[in-house]
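REVIEWER CHECKLIST
Item 1: Sequence provided? yes
Item 2: Single chain? yes
Item 3: Sequence as submitted:
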Amino acid sequence: MNIDAIRILGVDPGLRNTGWGLIEIAGSRLSFLECGSIQTDSATSLAERLASIHCALTALVERNGPHEAAVEETFVNSDPQSTLKLGQARGVALAALALKSLPVAEYAANLVKKTVVGVGHAEKNQVAVMVKMLLPASDVASPDAADALAVAICHAQHRRARARGPA
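Item 4: Structure as written out by the authors:
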């Protein structure tokens, strides 16, 4: 492993499925490390599901030691109840990462898609195809994992600009 390499954990929050993807960037070279999805049991309480997401993300950070994290911002849809639940899952993800002292960047879904696909309103399958092209070694098993890898790729592309701050 390159000592100058930065490991980035991308997270696509969701109450049912929280996607995650871990990449490494060394200079301008991106490498796939691993990805997956944290699935919660809909038969359990909201509190238990949120705790499950927190515990799983904490374990991922402890096991993989990422240097930075990136989380997709909440997409507001027409169902306020779904949006609220997504926001709660996102809040738990942000807290879990921050509690492990990771710097956490947040990106709008349209920016993630524009960075990875070139179009801000790209479809999920287009994102998955481009993730596979950018990370040929990736073995993405779910759309949530592909989205999480896209968030990590987006962060890898924008992290230097973010570090410099506003122009």
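Item 5: Key structural point noted by reviewer: The chain is about 50% helix and 20% strand.
Item 6: Recommendation: ____
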